[in-house]
Every structure is written in structure tokens, then in C-alpha cells.
Design brief:
By secondary structure, this protein is of the alpha+beta class. The protein has two domains: 130 residues, no CATH class; 124 residues, no CATH class. Helices cover 47% and strands 10% of the residues. The protein is built from nine helices and five strands; from the N terminus they run H-H-H-H-H-E-E-E-E-E-H-H-H-H. Strands 1, 2, 3, 4 and 5 form a five-stranded mixed β-sheet that branches. Helix 1 runs antiparallel to helix 3, helix 1 runs parallel beside helix 5 and helix 7 packs across helix 9. The longest helix is centred in the N-terminal third of the chain and has 46 residues. The two termini are 33 Å apart.
């Protein structure tokens, strides 16, 4: 994967392309503008950069190539063809002559122009590095960095005796906390409720130190509410045991990808346990993005409780 594709993939992640079936908060706006955003990332961005670099490269290359050929011709006229090696390099004994120094300077400029493609790739690498510093696992957060190679951070300073400065200074963003509220939806005449019955979230912190996931309650995953047409599905929000990691087939990857695997397993287990044939047919029916109706709501429920949105 080259630098351009890597940056495009990062932008797709930042703009939450994988959440096209969510319709709340900022996701509703992103979905409305999704085609425009997608076109910008896949076409407009690359075309604009290519156009800018191509124009810059073509103009400079035409001028410098002409100067290079003219200077080379002068050397041949003054010093003869013997001044160059078979690979068109100026021989060592002529490099310190006035015309030799001019030739080497122009040749260095020509080599620099021909490296514009490398510079273009570096631009995309720098863009990737910058944007990736403020995003991690579905959260927009400033990641800690350290000065390297003599480059130091500069902060506003007016001579105060003590200066306090936060890493996320001037980033006007508030991390959305976990909601842990009941999630209710209608399935024709039926009412389905997702309920958190056990949650261990670190108080006072927006980022838990260990990975936590929404999984079905291991004691009583399903229960009937008041009346025959009410189903309560019970979830826990906690770390997984080694046995559960194996059961849900969780390997490497982001927390989002891991939660999606758990969601699929949860859907399969719930679907098997539902006894009402009519409700089962409704929950298994294809809905948005060809997902079963129940799985769509499980994905929406876990996303709404954990993802950043405004």
C-alpha cells in the first residue's frame, strides 16, 4: 500500500465509513454527505495533489532541462567529450572549474526536480502522521508524542513564573461518555429492549485501561417483560475471560472489529433462543445494508454506547 492509499484509508476511518447504517448524532450528517466525502477522498484529493505537483514539476523540469543541456554543450565545446564519463558524469578533474561548478549546480537542481514524486509521497506520509495523532480506536483524542531529532514543542509564553499547558490545548471537543441506557425498538407489535445489567467502567476516566465489550449476560440473556409481546435482552459490559475470547473468535484487530465479532455471536445466540416464531421471523428479516433486523440494532446499540459523536 502506497502513501496515498494509506492516507485515504485513514480518512475513510476518520469519517466513519463503516458506520453507514447508523442514523444518530454526527453519523446522520456523515451519511447525508457520504457520497461527497467519498468522492473527495477517492478522486478530488488525489486529482488536486497530482495536478499541483504535475504543474510544478513540468514547469521546473522544462526550464532546468534546457539549462542542463545548454551547460553540458558548453562543456563539450570548451573541454571536449572527454570531460564526461560514459555515464554522463563530469570527470573529477573538471568539477572545480567555473563551468564545471555551474554544471554541477544545475545538475543538482535537475535531480531535485525529478524527485518531486518522492516529495509528493512524503507529503501524504506527513498528512497521515498528523491526522493519525488525534484518532485511536474510534475516539478523537490527542496521542502523546515526544520531541525527537532536536525538534522541540513551542508553546505560547509571556514570561509567567509558572506556565501550565495541556496537550489538547485549543481542541474544543468533549469526549462522549458511555451511556449505559436501555435501548428500545419496535418489531411490528413487539417491543424489544436491550438492557445493561452489569457494567464495570472506570469512574472518572473516558478511556478504560483494559478492553471492555458488550456481551450477552451469561446468567439470563433473555427475559420476557410484562405481556407476551415484550422481549428484554440482557447485556454485560466488561472484560472477557480467555474462554470467552476463544468462543467469540477474537484475534488481532481494533476494538471496533472485535466488538463486531461479538455482536455477530450475540445475534446468533439470541436468534436461537427466541421461541416466538413470528418475532423470530421479524428479527431475522433483512434490513439496512442487508443485515438482519436484530443484528442491525445490536450494532447500533453497541456503537451508540461507545463511539464518539456530538
Amino acid at each position: 500500500m502506497d502513501a496515498i492509499e494509506r492516507f485515504q484509508d485513514l480518512l475513510k476511518t476518520l469519517f466513519q465509513f463503516e458506520t453507514s447504517d447508523l442514523d444518530f448524532g454526527i453519523y446522520r450528517i456523515l451519511n447525508h454527505k457520504r457520497d461527497q466525502i467519498k468522492k473527495f477522498i477517492q478522486e478530488d484529493l488525489v486529482n488536486k495533489v497530482e495536478s499541483a505537483f504535475a504543474k510544478h514539476k513540468d514547469e521546473r523540469l522544462d526550464n532546468i532541462t534546457q539549462k542542463y543541456e545548454e551547460t553540458k554543450k558548453k562543456i563539450i565545446q570548451s573541454l571536449g567529450n572527454e570531460a564526461f564519463t560514459p555515464t554522463s558524469e563530469l570527470k573529477e578533474q573538471f568539477k572545480d572549474t567555473p563551468i564545471g561548478r555551474d554544471f554541477l549546480l544545475i545538475k543538482a537542481q535537475k535531480d531535485e526536480v525529478e524527485k518531486i514524486d518522492e516529495i509528493k509521497m512524503q507529503v501524504f506520509n506527513d498528512l497521515y502522521s498528523f491526522f493519525s495523532r488525534f484518532y485511536e480506536e474510534g475516539d478523537f483524542v490527542p496521542q502523546y508524542r515526544y520531541s525527537i531529532k532536536g525538534h522541540k514543542y513551542a508553546i505560547p509564553y509571556n514570561g509567567e513564573e509558572v506556565k501550565l499547558y495541556w496537550a489538547n490545548s485549543e481542541q474544543y471537543y468533549i469526549k462522549t461518555g458511555l451511556l449505559f441506557r436501555d435501548y428500545t425498538f419496535k418489531a411490528n407489535d413487539y417491543k424489544v429492549i436491550f438492557r445493561i445489567v452489569s457494567a464495570r467502567e472506570e469512574i472518572g476516566s473516558n478511556k478504560a485501561t483494559k478492553e471492555r465489550f458488550f456481551i450477552l449476560d451469561d446468567e439470563k440473556p433473555l427475559e420476557s417483560g410484562e405481556g407476551d409481546k415484550k422481549l428484554i435482552i440482557r447485556f454485560q459490559y466488561r472484560e472477557l475471560t480467555e474462554e470467552e475470547v476463544g468462543h467469540h473468535e477474537i484475534g488481532a484487530g481494533s476494538n471496533i472489529a472485535k466488538q463486531e465479532k461479538i455482536n455477530q455471536k450475540s445475534y446468533d445466540e439470541i436468534f436461537k433462543k427466541v421461541k416466538d416464531a413470528t418475532l423470530k421471523a421479524i428479527l431475522g428479516k433483512e434490513y439496512k445494508n442487508e443485515k438482519p433486523f436484530l443484528l442491525y440494532h445490536i450494532l447500533r446499540f453497541t456503537a451508540k454506547n461507545t463511539k464518539d459523536y456530538f
